[in-house]
Specification:
The complex is a heterodimer of chains A (229) and B (904).
Chain A (H helix, E strand, L loop, with lengths): L4 E5 L3 H13 L3 E5 L2 H11 L3 E5 L7 H8 L7 E6 L3 H9 L4 E5 L3 H17 L6 E4 L2 E4 L4 E4 L2 E2 L4 H11 L5 E3 H9 L7 H15 L9 E4 L3 E4 L4
Parallel strand pairs in A: 1-2, 1-3, 3-4, 4-5
Antiparallel strand pairs in A: 6-7, 7-8, 8-9, 10-12, 11-12
Chain B lengths: L14 H9 L4 E6 L6 H14 L4 E5 L6 H7 L3 E2 L3 E5 L2 E5 L2 H7 L3 E4 L15 H10 L3 E7 L7 H8 L9 H5 L3 E5 L3 H9 L6 H8 L5 H29 L11 E5 L6 H15 L2 E8 L7 H16 L3 E6 L3 H11 L4 E5 L5 H5 L4 H8 L4 E5 L14 H9 L1 H27 L6 H15 L1 H19 L11 H50 L3 H16 L3 E8 L2 E8 L7 H13 L3 E2 L11 E7 L2 E9 L9 H68 L5 H33 L7 E3 L1 H15 L5 E5 L6 E3 L1 H18 L5 E8 L2 E7 L33 H11 L3 E5 L9 E7 L6 H5 L1
Parallel strand pairs in B: 1-7, 1-8, 2-3, 2-6, 6-7, 9-10, 9-12, 10-11, 12-13, 20-22
Antiparallel strand pairs in B: 4-5, 14-15, 14-18, 16-17, 17-18, 19-21, 22-23, 23-25, 24-25
Helix pairs in contact in B: 2-3, 11-12, 13-15, 16-17, 17-18, 17-19, 18-19, 18-20, 19-20, 20-21, 20-23, 21-23, 23-24, 24-27, 25-26, 26-27
The chains are: A alpha/beta (229), B alpha/beta (904).
């Protein structure tokens, strides 16, 4: 989606120095905010299509910025965070962030997440009914799953789990989000439960269950379904 | 003939508890004999050899063989602990070494002669106390005892044999022994052995002289030993049956009460009660009644204390009651405590009391219901027999020194009343002079108490009759109505005196109580107000010294596994080693030690533990003003209250200290978290920039303008430099901290180094203006050129971070024997409080916009480096026009640089 407006919220000038040329070269329009307050004002005024938010801001906690922004905008938000801040990342995702990128990152990785988030935001209106990835075909109208034309038998729970992940293909889903979607809010902390089901599902749909390519693990955070190419 | 017991003595439900308690202690086996020479030591050693062969770890703590070959042969295979040699008044005394035994920690130790009295200055005065400590350390003990040394039998033995027994062992020691072995030979055999010279004992000569070893004596002693052992075997049997849940008529349910008074007979009464209790297999309690108005006569209190202590050592419970009506108090207590028999000595009641039938034993006999009263009669001790003495002494003996004053006052006041009466009758004719005498009685009652008033009443009676009732100056009465008036006068005088005296006594008591309460309240207020430990200890020490009227009071607290003198009043530098070890004992065991206690009684201080629910927090020691005096129960009570209060206050202070320490730790933890976060931020930001720029160049290199590509490359270079500086700083810091820094000591040309540092700064921070102003005649400085440049660069880095928009100036000049180099910025400056703190590691001054600027290492590294080169560094603010900060480095100037070196 060329021409999309991206709001970058980061206080480090060095980061902007490479983000600006990279985003502009990819055909996006970049806006910049150095503080949380400025970010909120700009998000309200100029309605960006996507927000890249560094959680470490000088004036306020990045999570507070996220919570307040979510009250008036549904634009996808991608978080920039450090690898050792796992708890912070999960909290941010549960608060409504769409994805995260760990610092330091390669620009290609950020752009891929950015595209997936933008596509998902646009596609939210039109519900997908057919997913095709890596030889696996999910026909949601007929509730049929095939791999290279061979029918795969899934239990209803496994099917629901797979659909929840596939509908968010390319985006990370936290354990809580998956558990809430599939098992209901009462089970949102039964992570062990989820691990077992994901293991069973991988055994049925992955080419090599020991090196999964369709359902990837985001360690400590959740799972990410491979986007169709 | 030996008997052993293997069951517990107490049948109560407490048995389990007692058993558990006992398992924590070593087992005590006592070899009992009727007299010296029966072969206790021999029997003991024989058995020791046997268990040794079974592999038991047995050592000999102390055995006296008296050079006898047979006995000596038995000790040969056994390990013998070396004895402790005590030098006492020029003599060498060999003693059992308790500490060595505790260190050796054997399974079983043999310590002969349980009744032995230790040399002065030993930890315990008696050997049986040493044995208790061994048992407490879970060491089994075998020991030997002659029956005559048993406390409760001491008086019986001296009566039977005519030999006074001085060394005694409390009955509880024997009662709590796990086993008893009776070593017995007939009296004839023993005498034969003596004649054959087979028995050698140090005591023998003395005892022989006292005609101790007679057939009659030995038979009597043998009977005592046999009976005592038999009683125990009987107990054991009963115990056994009870444990087997066999029902039987053995429930004695007898409970004895023995009345302890101030008379000399008390000790004998207590012993009699003990024997009776043992015979009945009954529990017993020793009771004394303190009358509130009793004058504190030293000898009385001491006798009561001694008798109570004796009772306790014989296994009695003790109780101190308060009350005026002795028999009523005792009977009430007896009813409350289900006492079945009361033991009382036949009191030699005073002349007057016997007249009205008010001796305690009589009163008890008359008023007791459903309780047996057992009256012990005793002979009057020699020294208590009345002798011919002078009047003053006699009054003192009968009434005590203070009472004789009261009596003299009675005489004086009655004489004064007579004089006034006579004078008045000369002037006017008085219808009734008796009022003047009543005044005298009242005076005595109010100032000198009940007895003085009684004396005054009687004296008044006679004086009134003699001087004022016709016929005058005769003890006869002419008119019958006068006789009647005189009788009424006597009754009134008695009543008035009694009431006033009582009121006075009560008032005095109330005043004393109020005094105690008030001063205790004051202490507790002082203690609760004090937070610092030192204040608490000082307040408590001063107060205790005042209350006890002690010569000195000290407080000791534990510190790093030792007790330290924390406070003393009057101030004291140190305690003697003996005092310290007594204090340590009191602390470790939680018991009293020192003066008038069972442990180290020869030292001047008595130490008591400061106990709280959390354990012993310290020790309080006091040195009495008079070492011969005793502590009265009131004093003891007051002291206990002080100690309780102090203990709680000390505990509270320690808790506060602990929580402060915990808070400090928490702060430390917080600091480390912040530090880690900022470290990771400082490392990650340049890395993120570099990675981002590199990947952008890779991906969009072709589509970017030339200018943008150059900027990206430049940012990579800058960020790499930033990262390098940061890593270098970390390494420097760790080198300084590890002490691995070895600065060179060379001649450094400051101008050159300063220029180089500024050049580096200009490259690193292109947006910043740096100017230099260096004096022309700059001398060389001593130091390490590389390190000095690093220091200056760190100062410049700091200046550009915090110095705002203005320029940064570097000056260098000579000042005395030093070269001063300063870096000045035009920023907002440094708060006075922060002038030294900025050199602390990880201290960060925030920037006005709140952004983090670094980990706060630069200046602390600069300080570390400068100091390693023997220089100084400090900050000044404001520097220029009430703004800015100046950081100054002072290095030693080199006086005579060698030209050759400079040239190179």
């Amino acid at each position: 989606m060329s021409g999309a407006r991206i709001l970058v919220v980061d206080d480090e000038p060095q980061i902007l120095r490479f983000l600006r040329p990279a985003l502009e070269a990819s055909g996006y329009e970049m806006q910049h905010a150095g503080t949380g307050r400025e970010a909120l004002r700009m998000a309200a005024n100029s309605a960006p299509d996507l927000i890249i938010l560094d959680l470490g801001l000088p004036d306020m906690d990045g999570k507070d910025v996220l919570t307040q922004a979510r009250q008036f905008t549904s634009a996808p938000i991608i978080i920039l965070s450090a690898r050792d801040r796992e708890v912070e990342k999960i909290a941010a995702l549960d608060l409504g962030a769409d994805d995260y990128v760990e610092k330091p990152f390669a620009i290609g990785e950020l752009l891929a997440r950015l595209r997936a988030a933008l596509r998902h935001a646009r596609g939210a209106a039109t519900q997908k009914t057919r997913v095709e990835v890596d030889g696996l075909v999910i026909d949601m109208d007929r509730r049929l799953v095939t791999r290279e034309g061979v029918l795969i038998k899934l239990t209803p729970r496994e099917y629901d789990l797979m659909c929840a992940l596939a509908l968010n293909a390319g985006r990370v889903m936290t354990h809580r989000q998956i558990l809430t979607a599939v098992w209901g809010p009462a089970h949102k902390d039964d992570t062990q439960y989820l691990r077992v089901f994901v293991g069973q599902l991988r055994a049925k749909i992955e080419r090599d269950p020991s090196a999964p390519t369709i359902i990837r693990t985001e360690s400590g955070i959740g799972y990410r379904f491979q986007e169709s190419a | 003939m030996s008997t052993e017991r293997n069951t517990e003595r107490r049948p109560d439900p407490d048995a389990l508890l007692a058993l558990a308690d006992k398992e924590k202690r070593g087992r005590l086996l006592v070899f009992i004999g009727a007299a010296p020479g029966v072969g206790k030591t021999f029997a003991m050693l024989q058995r020791a050899r046997a268990v040794k062969q079974e592999g038991v770890d047995v050592v000999i703590g102390y055995v006296e063989t008296h050079g006898r070959a047979e006995t000596e042969a038995l000790t040969r295979d056994l390990e013998i602990l070396p004895r402790r040699v005590v030098n006492y008044q020029g003599a060498h005394i060999e003693e059992f070494d308790l500490d060595a035994a505790l260190r050796r920690q054997p399974k079983l130790i043999i310590v002969d002669e349980l009744a032995h009295t230790n040399a002065p200055e030993s930890r315990h005065p008696k050997r049986w106390q040493d044995v208790q400590e061994l048992l407490g350390a879970r060491i089994d003990v075998w020991t030997a005892l002659n029956i005559q040394h048993l406390e409760s039998l001491a008086d019986v033995v001296s009566r039977v044999t005519g030999v006074v027994v001085r060394e005694t062992v409390p009955d509880i020691v024997l009662r709590d022994a796990d086993d008893i072995v009776l070593v017995d030979i007939t009296a004839e055999d023993l005498i034969q052995r003596l004649k054959d010279g087979k028995v050698y004992l140090p005591e023998t000569a003395r005892l022989a002289q006292q005609k101790f070893f007679t057939l009659r004596n030995l038979t009597a002693l043998r009977e005592l030993a046999l009976r005592r052992t038999a009683a125990r075997v009987d107990d054991q049997m009963v115990e056994h049956l009870r444990q087997g849940a066999i029902e039987g008529p053995w429930e004695t349910a007898e409970r004895l009460l023995v009345c302890v008074g101030p008379d000399a007979q008390s000790m004998d009464v207590v012993r009699a009660a003990s024997r009776l209790a043992t015979g009945l297999n009954a529990g017993w309690v020793a009771v004394t009644v303190d009358a509130p108005e009793h004058e504190e006569a030293g000898a009385r209190t001491k006798r009561i204390d001694d008798a109570m202590n004796l009772a306790e050592s014989l296994g009695a419970e003790t109780a101190r009651l308060m009350g005026r009506d002795l028999p009523a108090e005792i009977l009430a207590y007896a009813q409350r405590e289900n006492i079945t028999q009361i033991v009382v000595g036949r009191s030699r009641a005073g002349y007057f009391r016997r007249l009205v039938g008010r001796s305690l034993s009589d009163a008890l006999l008359r008023r007791a219901e459903l309780v047996g009263v057992y009256v012990v009669t005793g002979e009057q001790p020699q020294n208590e027999r009345p002798r011919t003495i002078g009047l003053g002494e006699r009054l003192g003996a009968i009434f005590g020194p203070r009472l004789s004053v009261g009596l003299l006052a009675a005489i004086a006041s009655v004489a004064a009343a007579v004089a006034i009466g006579e004078l008045l009758t000369l002037v006017i004719s008085l219808p009734n002079v008796s009022m003047i005498f009543l005044t005298a009685v009242l005076f005595c009652a109010a100032w000198f108490g009940l007895r003085s008033a009684t004396a005054a009443a009687i004296l008044s009676f006679f004086a009134y009759d003699f001087f004022f009732i016709p016929p005058l100056y005769m003890f006869t009465i002419a008119e019958p109505q006068e006789f009647f008036a005189l009788g009424i006068f006597l009754i009134v005088a008695f009543l008035v005196g009694w009431l006033a005296g009582r009121a006075r006594d009560q008032e005095r008591l109330a005043r004393e109580n109020a005094q105690t309460t008030r001063s205790l309240f004051e202490l507790s207020r002082k203690l609760s107000g004090a937070v610092a430990l030192d204040d608490i200890l000082l307040a408590a020490t001063v107060y205790a010294q005042k209350t006890l009227a002690a010569r000195c009071v000290v407080m000791l607290l534990p510190e790093e596994s030792d007790l330290v003198l924390a406070s003393g009043w009057p101030p004291l530098d140190a305690l003697s080693p003996g005092e310290t070890s007594a204090a340590r004992w009191a602390f470790e065991k939680g018991e009293e030690a020192g003066w008038k206690t069972g442990t180290l009684p020869n030292i001047r201080f008595q130490f008591r533990p400061l106990r709280t629910t959390r354990g012993t927090v310290g020790v309080c020691g006091f040195e009495p003003a008079d070492p011969a005096a005793t502590i009265s129960p009131t004093m003891d009570h007051a002291l206990n209250l002080i100690l309780d209060q102090t203990a709680i206050a000390v505990d509270r202070a320690l808790l506060v200290k602990d929580s402060l320490r915990a808070a400090a730790l928490e702060d430390n933890e917080k600091l480390r978290t912040t530090l880690l976060a900022s470290l990771s931020h400082d490392l990650r930001t340049p890395l993120a920039s570099i990675t981002g720029a590199v990947t952008t160049l890779q991906r969009f290199g072709d589509s970017l303008t030339e200018e943008k590509r150059r900027d990206l490359l430049k940012s990579i270079e800058e960020e790499a430099g930033r990262l390098a500086r940061f890593v270098a700083n970390l390494l420097d810091m760790s080198r300084i901290e590890a002490g691995a820094l070895r600065p060179k000591n060379e001649y450094v040309e400051i101008a050159e180094v300063a220029r180089s540092a500024v050049e580096r700064a200009r490259k690193a921070f292109p947006g910043q203006t740096f100017i230099t102003s260096l004096a022309r005649d700059l001398p060389f400085a001593r130091g390490d050129a590389g390190l000095i440049e690093q220091v200056l660069f760190n100062l410049l880095d700091n200046a550009q971070k915090y110095g705002g928009e203005g320029q940064v100036a570097v000056h260098a000049r000579r000042a005395g024997a030093e070269v001063l180099i300063s870096v000045t910025d035009e920023g907002p400056g440094i708060r006075p409080a922060d002038l030294t703190r900025i050199f602390e590691k990880f201290y960060q001054g925030g920037r006005p916009d709140g952004r983090k600027t670094g980990v706060g290492l630069g200046l602390s590294i600069a300080k570390g480096l400068v100091e390693a080169m023997g220089g100084r560094i400090w900050a000044e603010s404001p520097a220029v026009r009430r703004r800015g900060a100046r950081l100054v480095v002072a290095l030693r100037a080199a006086e005579a640089p060698a030209p050759a070196k400079v040239a190179s």
